[in-house]
Amino acid sequence: MASFALGSALTLLRANQNDAAPHKPLIFTPNLNSLGFNHSLRTHASSTRCRSVGAPRAAAEAVEDVIVEGVEEVKEKGRVLRVGVVCGGPSAERGISLNSARSVIDHIQGEDLHVSCYYIDSELNAFAISPAQVYSNTPADFDFKLESLAQGFKSWSDFADHLAVNVDIVFPVIHGQFGEDGGIQEVLERYNIPFVGTGSNECRQAFDKYNASLELSRHGFVTVPSCLVEGSEADEPELSEWFAKNQLDPNSGKVVVKPARAGSSIGVTVAYGLADSLVKANAIITEGIDSKVLVEIFLEGGSEFTAIVLDVGYGTDSHPVVLLPTEVELQFLGSVDVREKDAIFNYRRKYLPTQQVAYHTPPRFPIDVIENIRDGASQLFKRLGLRDFARIDGWFLPNSVHVPSSPDSKFGRTEMGTILYTDINLISGMEQTSFLFQQASKVGFSHANILRSIINHACLRFPHLASCDDVSSDLPRTLKSPLLKDDWEGTQKVFVIFGGDTSERQVSLMSGTNVWLNLQAFDDLEVLPCLLAPTNGYSSSNDVDKNEVDATSRTVWSLPYSLVLRHTTEEVLAACVEAIEPDRAALTSQLRNRVINDLMEGFKKHSWFTGFDINDELPVKFSIEEWIKLAKEVKATVFIAVHGGIGEDGTLQSLLEAEGVPHTGPGVLASKICMDKVATSVSLKHLSDLGVLTINKDVRRRDELLSTPIPNVWHELTSKLQCETLCVKPARDGCSTGVARLCCDGDLSVYVKALEDCLLRIPPNSLSKEHGMIEMPNPPPELLIFEPFIETDDIIVSSKSMNENGHHLMWKGQSRWVEITVGVIGKQGLMHSLSPSITVKESGDILSLEEKFQGGTGINLTPPPSSIISHEALQKCKQNIEMIANTLELEGFSRIDAFVNVDSGEVLVIEVNTVPGMTPSTVLIHQALAEEPPMYPHQFFRTLLDLASERTIYIS
C-alpha cells in the first residue's frame, strides 16, 4: 500500500481558522458537531495550538493527499525531521515497548518533527502501523489488529527501502532481545539507516551481562562475583567450585540467578544453595528465556541505584553526563512480605504499582558517593562506546559489606564503601513515569525536551541531518509557578486532581498523570497536578453527608513536575514530605545545579538546545478548602481523576459546586445515583419497555451475612433471584472493587470470611471457578449487592488458526448477549455514545498480571464486528446508551458497562462509572479513536475540559 509511505508517518494537517495565530497546528479537528457542542467550542478546538503532540490519522489511505500538501507547506518554513519509532520485538518486555512507543510519540510529535510508527512482531516480521494502533491495550490486542491495520514488509530489505525514503532517523524503543542486543541496530547499519543509540557491536557487548562484567573488570571496575551456567554437564562442578571460592554455603548460600541476555528484570530470581541455583538456572534455559544464565552473589546490606546517562558531546567527541541517580529501596512490611524470598527489584516491582518499592532521587547517600556514582557511570559509558543515552544500574555497599574483587580494581572503591555497576540498559524504558523522565525532570527537562535532545544529539553523527538544528523549537515554554497569580495571566487554569485512598487510587494516579501530560500540550493552558492525599483509613461511601464533613479535613498537595512521575500515591506523598525537608531540599538543589552545569558544558556548543523547561519547585500542602479557594481565585477548572470514594460519590463535586468551581464529569446528584448501584437501577426501571433493562438485586448488610448460616443465605438468595450463580459487589464502590462470581455456598463462605477478616484482597483461584486477584474495599462495606450472574458466550480469539490470517474470532452466539463497555460524552441532555467495545480473551492463555495492569485486559473490539452484532442492532444499542445517560442526567463524560442483545440492541445495565479510567490505553481512548475523524488523547481530554469550563460560571 503506497499510502503507508507517508500515511503512517505524518500528521493530518488542518488549516488554522484563526488567521492571527502564528502557527498552524498539526492536528485535525474532532467531529464535535455530532456531540451537540456549540460553535465557539468547535472554533476553539480547531485554532488552539498544540505543542509537541501530534495527531496522525488512523486511516492512512484517506489522508495521503492532505499529508503531502501539508508537509510541503511546513518544509517551506524550515526542515522537518522525520523520525521512525520502532517498537515491539520478541522479548517478554514487548508490552513495555508498546508503552514506551506510545509515550515517545505523544511527546516528540510537532510542527518540525513528524513520526512514523513501525512494529516488529515476535517472529521478527516488520510492519508499518498507524500511530492510532499504538494505543492498543495489550500485545495480544496489538497483534490481533495487525492484519487489518498494518502494512507488512516481505523482507528486511523491503523494510529498509521504505525507511530510506520515508524516514530521516530511526528511534528504536524495543526493550530486551533484538532491541538492546544489537539486532535491530545491525539491520539498520547494514542498510545505512541512521538511528538513535548505541551501535550493534557495542550493544552486543553491553547487553550480555557476563561479557559486560568481564569487560568492566578489564577496565578496572569492581564487579559482582559471578558464574556462567549454560546447561552442560560441566555446570555443577564449576558452580560448586565457585560457591567454595566465594565462601558460600553449598546448601543455603543465597545467590541471584538471572539470564545473561534478557534485559534487566526478566527471569531474575533468588536461589539458595548449589542445587536450587542449578534448578532455577536450568529452568531459565528450558523455558527459552536464555541459553546463558548468570549466578551472582546476593548483595546483602547494600542499596540499589539506577542512573540515566545523557551524551551531550559534539561531533565524534563523547561527553556523557549522568543525571541525578535514583535509589531503589525495597520495603517489606508485615508477615506476608517477611516471608518473601525474592527480595530483589524484579519485573513486577519495576513496572507495577506496589508499596514494596520506594524511590529516592537523588539517593540518600553521602554526596561524595553520589558524585562517585556519576563519575563511574560516565567513565563506563565512554569506555564501552555507548551513544546518546543509556541507563546504568548498580549497588552501593557500605564498608561493613565485603565484596571480593581483583586488587587491580580501582573504579568503585571509595572511603565510604563500594560502588558496583551490574546492568547496562541500552534502551531505557520510556513509559510516562520511567526513570528516564523522573531523573530528567529533576534537572529541568520535560518529557519532550529530553526526548528531542536525545534525537538531536543522534543527528549529529550524520552530516545530512546535522542541519536539523531547530528541531527543539517546538518545545513548550518554561512551565510557570502555578501558585503565583501573576504567572497565570492570559491562560486558562486547570487543576488535575487524583489519588485518594480507595483500592483504585493507583489507577487514579495513572489516569491523572495521563490527563496532566496530555493537557500540557496546549499553549493556552496552565495545568497543575494535585494529589488528594490518602488518609489513614478508607473513606467509605455509605454515608455521603458524613463524607462531606470528613472531606473538609482532607489535604491536597500541589505537585512539581518531577514528583508526579511515581508509581503509587503513597510514593508521591512520601516524596512530597521528603522534598520539603530542609536538608533534603538543600542537597537536591546542590546536586541539581552540578548536573545542570555539567550538561551546559556540552549543550553550549549545540544551537538546537533552547534551554531547560522545568522549574525547580517544591510541593505545597493545602487543606481541601484552601485548595478549592485557590481554584476559585485563579478561576481554574478542576479535572477530576479520583476514582471511587469522594471523587465519584458526589462529595468532591458538592464541595466544588458550593464555591462555583467548574469540574469535569457529572454533577452531584448524578454522581450520587451512579455510585449507588441500587439507586442506578431504580432510576432506570421505567425504561424497560424502551429497550433498557436492569438486573434484579438483593441488598444484604454485612453484619447480617456474618451472623446468618451461610447455607441459609445462599438458599434465600438463589431462590429469590431465581438463579444458580450469583455476582456479589459492594453497594457503593468503584467498578471493580470487591466484585466476585459465586457458584456455590462455599464461595459465599470464602467471600464472607474475607469481609470478616478485613482482607485487602482475595487471592487468585480461592473460589470454585478460576479467577484473578479480587481487590477488596477497606474497611469492608456495610451493604453488599447480590444479583444473578449473567451468562454470556465467550468470544475467543484464536492465535493458532490454521488459515493464513493467523487470527480469527470464535463465538457460538447461543445466549445472544455479549458484555460491552461504552463511553458517553457531551452536554446534559445531549449525551453522545461512542462506539461500544467488546473485550475478549485469547484461547489457551490467561493474561499475565503485567499485561492486565500495563494496558487493560484482553483484546478490545471497537466497534464490535458485524459478525457478532449487526449494524442496526449496534445503532439501537447506542441509542439506548444515550437514553441511559440522559435519564441519569450525565454530563461531560462517563462510562457505562452493560450487556447487549446482538439481535435487538436491548441493553441490560451493569453499572455507570462517572469517573472512568483515563490511563494511556484505556478503552475510552480506543473508542475516541474510532470516531470519524479520530480523536487522539490530547484532543479527547481537551474536549472534556472544555465541556466542564463552559458548564459552570463562578459565583461571587
Q: What would you call the structural class?
A: alpha+beta
> What's the number of extended β-strand segments?
36
Bulk shape = globular
Radius of gyration: 28 Å
For the termini, the CA-CA separation is: 60 Å
* Proportion of residues in extended strands: 15-25%
Outline the low-pLDDT stretches: 1-49, 52-77, 332-342, 344-354, 537-546, 800-805, 842-856
Largest sheet descriptor: 7 strands, antiparallel
State the helical fraction: 25-40%
Rounded mean pLDDT is 82
Count of alpha/pi helices: 32
Quick structural summary:
The protein has 956 residues and is an alpha+beta fold.
Please tell me about this protein's structure.
Helices cover 35% and strands 19% of the residues. It is of the alpha+beta class and 956 residues long. Helix 4 (94-108) links the parallel strand 1 (81-88) and strand 2 (113-120). Helix 7 (183-190) packs antiparallel against helix 8 (200-207) and helix 18 (544-551) crosses helix 23. The radius of gyration is 28 Å and the shape is globular.
